[in-house]
Design goal:
The complex is a heterodimer of chains A (280) and B (352). By secondary structure, chain A is mostly helical. Chain A contains 13 helices and no strands. The longest helix of chain A is centred in the first third of the chain and has 32 residues. In chain B, the strands form four sheets. Chain B has a six-stranded mixed β-sheet with strand order 6-7-8-3-9-10, sandwiched between helices. A five-stranded antiparallel β-sheet of chain B has the order 13-12-11-14-19. The chains are: A mainly alpha (280), B alpha+beta (352).
Chain lengths: 280, 352
C-alpha cells in the first residue's frame, strides 16, 4: 500500500491578519450603526422614570409609559399625520414621474440619454441647506409654503433620481421581446405594458415607492424650513428638542426609525440593484 | 391561410442599408425558409412582415390586403421568437390563452383551443406550471403552442430551434414539419442552419447582405446553386471549387480537360459536389490525405493540385492515406461560376 503524502497547508500569515482586520472593521461598523438603534429601542420601551433615572438598564422593561406620553403630547398626532401625508404624496409623485422616465430610458434611444442619466443623479449633489432658503422664498411667493403639497414636491425631487434609476434597471431587465410578443398576440402598446411589463415590474416599483416614502419620512431640514404650522414629525421633534423630556425624544426617534428600518429591510434586494447601476 | 406578397421592401438602420429590393411571394400554405448568415437581414424582413419594424418603402400584402399601416395585432399573424418570450408571471395555460383572451373569445372556446394546441405540442400535462419550472425545450413548445392557438393566417418563426441541444432540435424539426403540414398554415421560418432549411422548407429564400440571392425548392438549390457562395454554403460536406483556365474551346481544371460553357472569359470556377465524382481511368489527380469512414460511406479529404478536395465514396472501396486517385465528375453534375462575381453560368452537356 502506497503511503500518501500530504503537503502541510498553512494559511499565509498576511491572509490571517487581513481576515482579522476585516472582521474587526465590520464589527466596528455594525456597532456604530446598531448601538444608537439599540439605545433608542431600550429607552422607548422603558417607563419615563427609568429613562431619566440612573443607572440605565441594558434590557427594556417593555413599559409603554414613554410611548403613551409621546402619543398624548400635544401636536404629535397632527405631526405624525402630516408626515404620513407628505410621504404618501412623495411616493405618488416620485413613482408617477420616475417610472415613466425609467421606462423611457430603458426602451427608447435618444440623443443625450447618458447625459440625462448622469444629470438625474447629479441633482442629489446639491446640498439641501443651500437650496432651502431660496426655496422658502419661492414657496412663499407661490403660496406653497407651509403646505403638505409644497414639501412633498421638495421630497419628490430628492427621491426622483432613485425612482428613475431603480425603475430603469428594472425595465432593462424585462426583455423587450415580451412586449413585442404581446403585440403580436393582440395587445396595443399600452395593453402590452399593463398586462406583461407591469406585473413583472411591480415588485421593483413598489420598492422605489418605499424608498421614496422613507426618504420623505426621515427628511428633517426642508421640513423644518418650509413648514410652520403643518409640521411633519421630524420638524416637530427638532423644534421641541430643547423643551422636551428625554423619553419623548427617544419615543419620537423610535417612531421615526423603526418604520424606516422595516421598510428598507423589506426592499433591500432592489436597493442592491441600485448599487449595481452605480458601479457599472 | 393566406399568401404573402412583399414588394420592393428596403430598410435602413443608422445609415446601413440592411434590406434592399426585396420582392418575394409566398403561396398560401407554403413553408418558406429565409436562410442566410448572421446579419443578412432575414430577421429584419420577418419583423417587417410582422409589423415590428417599419420599412423605408415598399409594400407588404397578407391574404391580398395591404398591411403596411396595420399594427401587428391586426395583421393575422402569430410569431414565435428566438428567445421564446414566454411570459414568466403566467401559467402555461394562461400563456397559451393570452392571445385568445385578447380576442375576447368565450371561456369554453378558449379552453378547447388551448387544450388542442397543447395536445399538438405534447404539453397537456404542463398546463398548470409556470415557465420558470420548465426546461428550454418545453418552453419552446409553449411558445409554439401559443402561436398555434391563435390559428393565424400566417405563422412567423424566428430561429425557434437555435437554443435547443442538437438531439432535441432534430426531434422538434420533424414534429414541426408534420404539424404545420397538418394545420396547413402559411409559414415563414428564419434560420442560419442550412440543414434545418433543407429539411423543413417547401422553398428556401437565401439572403446575403440584404438581398435575395436565390429562391427555389431545396433540391433545386442543392443541384443548381445560383452563386458560388450558395454552392459552398448548402450541403455538407460543401461543394468543391477549382480554378479553370480556358484552353482553346475547352477548359482545363488541374491539368484535366473538361468541356464547359462557351463564354468569353479567361477563367472560371469549376464546382463539383463530393458525391458527384467517381473513380475513373482519366480525370483529376487527387492525393489522399485523410480517410474518414462514416459508416454508409467514407469521406476522403485529398488535394487536387494545391487545393483541398473532398470526395464521398462508397465504403466498399478500400482507400488509405497516401493513395493517388483518379477521379472524374459525373455527367451533368459539374457547375460553373464566374471567377469574379461568383454567379453561376448555366450550361448543359447536352447542348454543347
Amino acid at each position: 500500500m502506497t503511503k500518501a503524502v500530504f503537503a502541510q497547508s498553512r494559511p499565509a500569515r498576511h491572509l490571517h491578519t487581513g481576515r482579522w482586520l476585516t472582521a474587526a472593521s465590520v464589527t466596528l461598523l455594525c456597532a456604530w450603526v446598531l448601538f444608537p438603534i439599540y439605545l433608542i429601542l431600550v429607552n422607548t420601551l422603558s417607563s419615563p422614570a427609568e429613562v431619566s433615572g440612573f443607572p440605565k438598564r441594558f434590557f427594556p422593561s417593555f413599559d409603554f409609559g414613554s410611548l403613551l406620553f409621546f402619543y398624548n403630547f400635544r401636536g404629535v398626532i397632527g405631526a405624525l399625520i402630516n408626515s404620513i401625508l407628505v410621504a404618501s404624496l412623495t411616493v405618488v409623485l416620485a413613482i408617477g414621474f420616475g417610472a415613466p422616465a425609467g421606462y423611457a430610458l430603458a426602451r427608447f434611444r435618444f440623443r443625450g440619454k447618458n447625459a440625462f442619466r448622469i444629470l438625474v443623479l447629479m441633482t442629489r449633489a446639491f446640498p439641501l441647506p443651500l437650496l432651502a432658503l431660496p426655496l422658502a422664498v419661492m414657496f412663499i411667493r407661490t403660496g406653497l409654503d407651509d403646505s403638505v403639497v409644497g414639501l412633498a414636491i421638495v421630497h419628490s425631487t430628492l427621491a426622483l433620481p432613485f425612482a428613475v434609476l431603480i425603475t430603469y434597471s428594472l425595465f432593462t431587465g424585462i426583455p423587450f421581446e415580451f412586449e413585442e410578443a404581446a403585440w403580436t398576440l393582440g395587445c396595443s402598446r399600452f395593453q402590452a405594458f399593463r398586462k406583461v411589463v407591469l406585473p413583472l415590474a411591480l415588485p421593483g416599483i413598489a420598492a422605489s415607492g418605499v424608498f421614496a416614502f422613507v426618504t420623505s419620512w426621515n427628511e428633517v431640514f426642508a421640513a423644518s424650513v418650509l413648514t410652520i404650522r403643518n409640521r411633519t414629525l421630524t420638524a416637530f421633534l427638532l423644534q421641541n428638542l430643547d423643551v422636551s423630556p428625554l423619553y419623548l425624544k427617544f419615543a419620537g426617534g423610535a417612531v421615526l426609525v423603526v418604520p424606516a428600518l422595516v421598510f428598507m429591510f423589506a426592499v433591500r434586494k432592489y436597493l442592491f440593484t441600485l448599487w449595481g447601476i452605480a458601479s457599472r | 391561410m393566406a399568401g404573402i406578397e412583399i414588394r420592393n421592401i428596403a430598410k435602413r438602420f443608422d445609415g446601413n442599408l440592411v434590406l434592399a429590393d426585396i420582392d418575394l411571394a409566398v403561396a398560401d400554405q407554403e413553408f418558406l425558409v429565409l436562410l442566410g448568415a448572421s446579419g443578412c437581414g432575414k430577421t429584419t424582413l420577418l419583423r417587417i412582415i410582422a409589423g415590428l419594424e417599419v420599412p423605408m418603402h415598399g409594400e407588404v400584402r397578407i391574404g391580398g390586403r395591404r398591411v403596411n399601416e396595420l399594427a401587428p395585432r391586426s395583421r393575422g399573424i402569430a410569431m414565435v421568437f428566438q428567445q421564446y418570450a414566454v411570459f414568466p408571471h403566467l401559467t402555461v395555460f394562461e400563456n397559451i390563452a393570452f392571445g385568445l383572451r385578447m380576442k375576447k373569445l368565450a371561456k369554453d372556446a378558449i379552453d378547447a383551443r388551448v387544450r388542442k394546441a397543447a395536445g399538438l405540442m405534447h404539453i397537456e400535462g404542463l398546463l398548470a406550471r409556470y415557465p420558470g419550472q420548465l426546461s428550454g425545450g418545453q418552453r419552446q413548445r409553449v411558445a409554439v403552442a401559443r402561436a398555434l392557438a391563435m390559428e393565424p393566417e400566417v405563422l412567423l418563426m424566428d430561429e425557434p430551434l437555435s437554443n435547443l441541444d442538437a438531439l432535441l432540435r432534430m426531434e422538434m424539426r420533424a414534429e414541426l414539419k408534420a404539424l404545420l403540414k397538418e394545420t396547413r398554415t402559411t409559414t415563414i421560418y428564419v434560420t442560419h442552419d442550412q440543414v434545418e432549411a433543407m429539411s423543413l422548407a417547401d422553398r428556401i429564400a437565401i439572403m446575403d447582405e440584404g438581398r435575395l440571392v436565390q429562391v427555389a425548392d431545396p433540391i433545386e438549390i442543392y443541384r443548381n446553386p445560383a452563386t458560388r457562395y450558395i454552392g459552398g454554403f448548402i450541403g455538407s460536406p460543401p461543394m468543391n471549387f477549382l480554378p479553370a483556365a480556358r484552353q482553346d474551346g475547352t477548359w482545363e481544371v488541374a491539368g484535366f480537360r473538361v468541356a464547359g460553357p462557351r463564354v468569353d472569359r479567361p477563367e472560371l470556377v469549376f464546382g463539383i459536389r463530393p458525391e458527384d465524382v467517381h473513380l475513373a481511368d482519366a480525370g483529376l489527380s487527387a492525393a489522399v490525405r485523410v480517410v474518414e469512414p462514416l459508416g454508409a460511406h467514407q469521406l476522403v479529404t485529398a488535394t487536387v493540385g494545391d487545393q483541398l478536395f473532398r470526395i464521398v465514396l462508397d465504403s466498399d472501396v478500400k482507400i488509405v492515406s497516401g493513395d493517388a486517385l483518379i477521379i472524374a465528375p459525373r455527367t451533368g453534375r459539374a457547375r460553373w461560376f464566374d471567377a469574379n462575381t461568383g454567379v453561376a453560368i448555366p450550361w448543359s452537356e447536352e447542348g454543347a
